[in-house]
Amino acid sequence: MIFEFEALQRNHTWSLVPLPERRIPIGCRWVYRVKENPNGGVEKYKARLVAKGFHQQAGFDFNETFSPIVKPTTIRIVLTIALSRGWSVRQLDINDAFLNGILQEEVFMSQPQGFVDEKHPKYVCRLHKALYGLKQAPRAWFERLHKALLQFGFVSSKADQSLFFRITSTHTTYILVFVDDILITGSNADVVTTLIKLLDVKFSLKDLGEITYFLGIQVTHTVNGFHLSQHKYIRDFLVKTKMLQAKGLSTPMTSGLNISS
Q1: Which residue, among 75, 131, 78, 77, has the nearest Cα to 105 in the 3D structure?
Q2: Which parts of the sequence belong to the Reverse transcriptase Ty1/copia-type domain (predicted)?
């Protein structure tokens, strides 16, 4: 919680101000979760401050909320291109991605539990940056990333807005975006590495190296290419539904059944 709060302060996420008349601040809460590795082991324990976006009012403290996410078909196509041409696929995780989104609306939030300012206990947080839980947070982050990639010379695909590409006479580079998870592949490894460094300066990120786990898909590298599976995703789902120990049953089907109309 301390690390999260300090990150919010460094990012100038809000300013403490008196609550204006006729305004009701939205609430916030702490959310805790365990982030796992692809093999199911504990990577880290994380606390996140989340705004209670359900307190927001449309047209008052938020307007547009839609944010595009990459399509599964696009992921498979780009992975196939990378595999057929022998390109490496790098995976990135943006640190506190939503905090990079700049708010256009005026949003007031109550101070987080456990971190109320002693000098101004009745003040509220006037949000400058998007916070997890806000209805417009995903859109604000995507717009910020979209603008940065355009400055780097990338173009958004008309078929999938979460696919960005840059094609020159010397190299080709593709970027797939799913909120704060990003895949980068291209014909020139040095260009990809330089791009990652530029993004790190712009947003602060974690370079996860070669792709291993993306959107519930486990990627295993073999001598023949990639092996894609959802073993961990299915196992986590069975644990969540308390069906991990359930016994499997075959589904009977009449042989030679004619189901034509």
Answers
A1: 131
A2: 11-254
Please name every residue paired with 109 in a beta bridge, in sequence order, or none if there are none. 26, 125
Token digits for 233?
A: 């995703």
User: Is it the case that residue 43 has pLDDT exceeding 90?
Assistant: no
Q: How far apart are CA 206 and CA 108, in angstroms?
A: 31
Token pair of 251, please? 């589904």
Within 10 Å of residue 139's Cβ, how many Cβ atoms? 20
Q: Which two tokens stand for residue 252?
A: 């009977």
Q: Residue 51: what pLDDT?
A: 87
Task: Single out the residue of 7, 24, 10, 9 nearest to residue 107, CA to CA.
Answer: 24
Reported as a single tens digit per residue, the pLDDT across 143-180 is 889 999 999 999 999 999 999 999 999 999 999 998 88
Which residues fall within 8 angstroms of residue 94, CB to CB, at 6 or more apart? 100, 180, 182, 203, 204, 205, 206
Q: Given this model, what pLDDT does residue 192 score? A: 94
Q: How confident is the model at residue 183 (pLDDT cuts 50, 70, 90)?
A: very high
Structure tokens at 13: 């996420």
CB 46 within 8 A of CB 35: yes
Residue that has been written with the tokens 């603008």 in this structure: 147
Three-point CA angle 89, 92, 94, nearest 5°: 160
Residues 12, 131: Cα–Cα separation, whole Å: 11
Residues 6+ apart with CB under 8 A from 1: 30, 47, 114, 115
